[in-house]
Amino acid sequence: MQTPGKRKNIFVFIRPLDYQVSDTKNGVFIRTIEVEGVDQAGIVYKVSKLLASHNINIETLKSHKKFSPNSGTALYFMEINTKIPESVSIDELDDSLDDLANELNVDIHLK
Known about the structure:
Elements: H1 4-7, E1 24-25, E2 28-38, H2 43-53, E3 57-67, E4 74-85, H3 90-104, E5 106-110
Antiparallel strand pairs: 1-2, 2-4, 2-5, 3-4
Helix pairs in contact: 2-3
């Protein structure tokens, strides 16, 4: 028996889209911060603390852990959607995130 899609020659391909918004809305920038690196205690705490020190609101935070197929090392991935007040210098925030990335030995990207 054929599946309904096959019988009608309908094929569906689904893939996630990389949705990024960097507009200014109601006095805030909507930006995404991505963190990748070796899993360790304190990543969420230190990134959240840095954002709070700049009065940045975390709208959503998603994270997951994967194990490297070669070494078995636990790798940590985090995506944070934020609202950054217009009063915050994006360049200064980016510099602060770079300093934290070096401290934690992870990659942090502000998109």
